[in-house]
Design brief:
Elements (H helix, E strand, L loop, with lengths): L4 H6 L4 H17 L5 E2 L3 E6 L3 H17 L4 E7 L5 E6 L8 H5 L8
Parallel strand pairs: 2-3
Antiparallel strand pairs: 1-2, 3-4
Length: about 110
């Protein structure tokens, strides 16, 4: 239907605007969750077992890191089986240690 991405953006009925609205709702839901732990070195958030949480956890972790580059950030997302998916960001101003922590797990680092 569209020959370029710009045509989709120009069409207010395009899927682009549905995706933009859904992203905003997902991000607002994540922003409403208070930190479950906060220190000078780490902020930890636990998102609920929802599709929105799974969609937004990585982007949310990046946003937190950009807002406070001197702190590490962890976003835990509860899985249906009671385990967690963890999105970890090292402090942007001191990118040390995250690889060592994540590398201890089978799916660490990616």
């Amino acid at each position: 239907k569209y020959t370029s991405p710009f045509e989709a953006i120009e069409d207010t009925a395009s899927p682009y605007y549905q995706l933009q609205s859904a992203y905003q709702q997902d991000m607002e839901a994540a922003l409403a969750v208070p930190a479950m732990h906060e220190s000078g070195k780490l902020k930890l958030f636990e998102l609920p077992n929802t599709a929105a949480s799974r969609r937004i956890s990585g982007v949310y972790g990046n946003s937190l890191a950009n807002q406070n580059p001197d702190s590490a950030h962890a976003v835990l997302t509860e899985n249906a089986d009671g385990t967690y998916t963890v999105s970890l960001r090292a402090p942007l101003n001191n990118k040390q240690g995250a690889v060592a922590v994540c590398g201890q797990f089978p799916t660490g680092g990616g």
